[in-house]
C-alpha cells in the first residue's frame, strides 16, 4: 500500500500501486476536475511529489513508493 497525500488540504488515503489517481481522489472525497477522461484535454492535471505534472485520469499510483504527494491546482480557464 502507498500513502497518498492530497494537497492543499492534506487529505490522506491508502492506495494500491497502479490504482488510478482519479479513483483514489474520488474515494478520498477529493474533487479533481475532468474533461475527456483520456488524458487529451489535461483538465485533470496534478503535480506529484513537487515536480512531475500528470493527468490523474490515466495515471496510476506509482509502485515502489511509500508515499506520494499530489498537489491539486486548478486552471481558472477550465
Oligomer: single chain
In sequence order, what are the helices and strands, one letter per element?
Answer: EEHEEE
DSSP helical segment count: 1
What would CATH call the architecture? Roll
Q: Please give the radius of gyration in angstroms.
A: 11 Å
| Average pLDDT metric | 91
What number of structural domains do the residues give?
1
Give the overall shape, derived from the CA principal axes. Answer: globular
Q: Low-confidence segments, ≥5 residues, pLDDT <50?
A: none
Strand order of the main beta sheet, please?
A: 2-1-5-3-4
Fraction of residues in helix: 10-25%
Terminal CA distance: 33 Å
Largest sheet, described in full? 5 strands, mixed
Number of strands: 5
CATH superfamily: Beta-grasp domain
Brief characterization of the structure:
The chain is mainly beta and 78 residues long.
Secondary-structure topology with pairs:
Elements: E1 2-7, E2 11-15, H1 21-28, E3 45-48, E4 52-55, E5 67-71
Parallel strand pairs: 1-5
Antiparallel strand pairs: 1-2, 3-4, 3-5
